[in-house]
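Need tokens for this chain, all 494 residues.
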Amino acid sequence: MRLFTAALAAFATLAFGAGAGPLGALARAQEDGESGEPQRSEADLQAEAELRAALEKDPKNVAANVALGQFLYERGYAAEGLALLWRAVGLDAKDEGAATTLIDDLLQENAGYVAAGDTMNSDAQVARAAKVLSDFTAAGGVESKATRIRRVRVFSLLPGKEAEGYAAAKKLLTDEPADEALHVLFVEAATAAKQFEDGLDFYAKGACEPWLAAWFTSELHVGRAHMYFNRYTDDEKTVQDYLEAEQLVLQSGRLHPQVFAAASERASRDRAWRGWTRLRQDRYDEAWELFVSAWGRDPKNENAVAGLRYLGDRLYESGELEKARELYRQACTIAPDRVDFWNNYALICRDSGHYEESYRAYLRAVALAPDDPRSINDCYLILLYHLHRDLDLAEREFIRAEDLVRAQFTAAQQGDDEGALASTRSVLGDVLVNLARLYSEQGRMQEAGEHWNELRAVDPGRPELPENGAEPPPQSVPPPKDPGAPDKPADGGR
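Here are the structure tokens for all 494 residues:
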């Protein structure tokens, strides 16, 4: 029996294509090399030489073609590896090893193209895998557990064949209810065929161990909940499925302590998805509690942390500044290394008139990202416009921000990323405006004039320029008793 942790890893790969990319092995292998060629060890070179020698001795040997083809595919030479595997099935279409190996690699290619959003090529890989299966059967290949598993995987991805794939998966699991990997396959097939009710009934009546039944019944509830969530069909059913999934997976962990940690992670995942569903219903308080408790169950749950940020943004945009401020204060405690959390918390404090609190939050952001000119600018404008102190410090930091962003702006001008160019121009403009105003306030008119002229050269359309109406600097406001949605100054922001 395969270890349960391995089965879970397989499920993640099957369901979501984790770790794959177009010509996946090549994409992964090239990460470490500057030349675009996969990096190779002496042991690999020796092994490849031996495999090539074996193939040269007998080019029509199916096993030799498969061995070298898979070796090359796994080490980044996907095109040559796949070509050898195709040659192997061409030599003997009914060879199980050649067929199953090629199908596995084609499905990995499919997962990579899916992740890249390339529907045409992803569909092509599935069609090719189906052709390998068809040729295997037509050539008189003997069906085995290995080929039946591949048939399920392919049919789960092939339009019109999902029900057939589910039936085959059910038969496999019925024959071997103790095989954890077949449970993973069954859930994948049931999800593809949308046979959730039948799948749930199977586990309710099945003969497998209680902890396995609880775990994979939970996974079926998750699959159905995801379907409801993505279709916007019934949010209450969605929430109920996620809740049942959480309860069942925790039951599985209690029944089988060896999977308790994995069950806890999944329970956190399901709880966070309930939070997203409540957020979509504008039930903010419930969403907040679910995100916080999901994080508490598993602090590594990035989906829960992302939910906190999104909820805070929604409250900010709707003008509920005091509520958004409290939410982000707690979010910064939950995820103290998130620069974006500290920046957003600081911005909300600024817009609601809590300037000391805003300054402290911006200092935390700058400490986490000391070379981010946006964070530096937004931090020290609090001293200039709102706290009216330590202007020597503000000047020094504005100059440092100017130096940093000028380098970024120059690099962006030489590239073709319009978004980066617009962003760096905006930040540079903000810094120049703040320096010009600081110098004007101190009576240093020549330096102020120089910075206004630099602003004209960088962004002649800035509203702060006299010829464009000379938009005044932001004014300080007291913390509102009944917070509204005050206008934001042009500087800073998220």
